[in-house]
Specification:
By secondary structure, this protein is mostly beta strands. It has one helix and 26 strands.
Length: 460
């Protein structure tokens, strides 16, 4: 009997369709301007493996990502970036019926319509060890049911666990906390002042008022219209843990003049309504994303640190966020290439504007009143070459960032990416970009950031 069952199982495997793909790549980034004490370059080996299995109406997939940072080979642990890891992003199975689909496992989902920042794409958390400016998403455990209509679909998704967000160590360019806070406290003669040093650290452990295994429910309805002006639309209702997180700050006394301040994240429950849409009118693509968020518990707080290093706590408030954009495409702009002109605007605010409510600054929200202007040039060649470049201007904090990215393929199996980024952080507010590092001679003056990156990957 066992032999017969084994033969049946082997026969089913032979009839099934297996596929594998992935890449091995080397990424090099150089930082011409960076705060003293941080590494001026990084060298990262990246590997990804995707395995897919199909048999009749059943599908399964496995997705593994790994990377190694050259600095982690150093014997001095204080000089390591702590960016070497292996991560399981996806492992799932799903079964397709005539008009329905059931899903179980761990996967990555994408929601959104805008180019620069998909503010409703909050189903998955991020891993900031990969790239602080463009962190990878990590998989989330969930079960789902989807019913397909003629031109739309309805999904019920239950996320089963909240993932921690990892961050690299201090020497890495995109460690978003200062190494330490130094205070000069007046003292009686003959001592002019006393220097108090508070070391700053980040702990990836995630905290919540309820279990991190408390389910988060998503109800999604999406579809498209068939008309002269095609519209793709999606509406998502969420009840459970929010993608925006608060920060705790625990202070520990080392000795009389030395302390350690440890930041950690906390998740909280919300009711949320999200939407993302695109509308095509002739050669123009219009985009809109938005969300309304109401806290279930109005007593959730976030830690803030003042200029003198003192801690205080502000309440997390109900908030709203939206982004609008348009992209105009000039077909055959030069030779066979197409030029897309892109403009997008992002806004974030709380419904309560009182002094005890955490603001976008306290929550490290980067896109709170920002305008993006840029272009995308698609060469339409056999190498799938493209360029995307533009500028993001913070309309409130006088902060700007400029970026250029070029991608192409070499010999069909090699993918080449080149990028340049320049960030001029705010000099008036402690934004996320400003906190990346300050001038040693002028401790309250943030350092402008530049990077030049090159990524070469072999795809199989």
């Amino acid at each position: 009997m066992k032999t017969l069952l084994g033969m049946i199982f082997l026969a089913s495997l032979l009839q099934a369709e297996w596929s594998t793909k992935g890449y091995v790549g080397l990424e090099t980034q150089v930082y011409p301007t960076i705060p003293e004490g941080k590494h001026q370059s990084s060298f990262t080996l990246q590997q990804k493996l995707e395995v897919a299995y199909e048999y009749d109406d059943f599908e399964a997939a496995l997705n593994i990502y790994a990377q190694e940072d050259s600095s982690d080979l150093k014997a001095d642990t204080d000089a390591q970036n702590k960016r070497t890891f292996l991560r399981l992003d996806e492992i799932y199975g799903k079964y397709n019926f005539e008009n329905d689909m059931v899903f179980a496992g761990k996967n990555i989902r994408f929601w959104g319509a805008l180019e620069v920042n998909n503010l409703v794409d909050t189903f998955n958390t991020h891993d900031f060890r990969t790239d602080g400016l463009d962190p990878q998403k990590q998989g989330a455990w969930n079960v789902a049911f989807t019913h397909y209509f003629e031109s739309s679909e309805f999904s019920m998704i239950v996320k089963l666990h909240e993932e921690e967000e990892q961050m690299a160590a201090y020497p890495y360019a995109y460690y978003f906390f200062p190494k330490e806070i130094v205070q000069n406290v007046p003292a009686p003669p003959p001592v002019n002042n006393v220097k108090i040093v508070t070391a700053v650290d980040y702990e990836s452990k995630l905290y919540a008022q309820e279990s991190l295994y408390r389910p988060t429910l998503y109800l999604s309805y999406s579809g498209s219209t068939e008309s002269d002006y095609p519209l793709d639309y999606a509406v998502v209702f969420q009840h459970g843990f929010d993608g925006q997180r608060a920060f705790n700050a625990d202070l520990e006394t080392i000795d009389t003049f030395n302390y350690e301040l440890t930041f950690s994240q906390e998740v909280y429950l919300v009711n949320k309504l999200m939407t993302y849409n695109t509308l095509v009118v002739d050669a123009v693509l219009f985009k809109f994303e938005g969300q309304l968020v109401a806290l279930v518990d109005e007593n959730v707080t976030a830690a803030t640190i003042g200029d003198n290093g003192d801690r205080s706590y502000l309440k997390i408030g109900d908030y709203y966020q939206f982004g609008v954009g348009a992209e105009y495409t000039l077909t055959g702009f030069f030779d066979d290439g197409d030029l897309g002109l892109i403009g997008e605007y992002y806004y974030y605010n709380t419904f309560k504007g009182s002094d005890d409510i955490a603001t976008d600054i306290n929550l490290f929200q980067i896109f709170q009143n920002d305008l993006f202007l840029g272009f995308r040039y698609t060469f339409n060649d056999s190498a799938d070459s493209s360029i995307i470049a533009g500028a993001i201007v913070d309309m409130e904090y006088e902060e700007q960032s400029f970026s250029f990215k070029y991608e192409t393929r070499l010999l069909d199996v090699l993918k080449l990416k080149f990028d340049y980024v320049y960030i001029n952080p705010s000099s008036t507010e402690p934004t996320a970009y400003a906190l990346m590092g300050f001038d040693e001679k002028h401790p309250k003056t943030p350092v402008a950031h530049q990077r030049v990156g090159l990524n070469l990957a072999y795809h199989f």
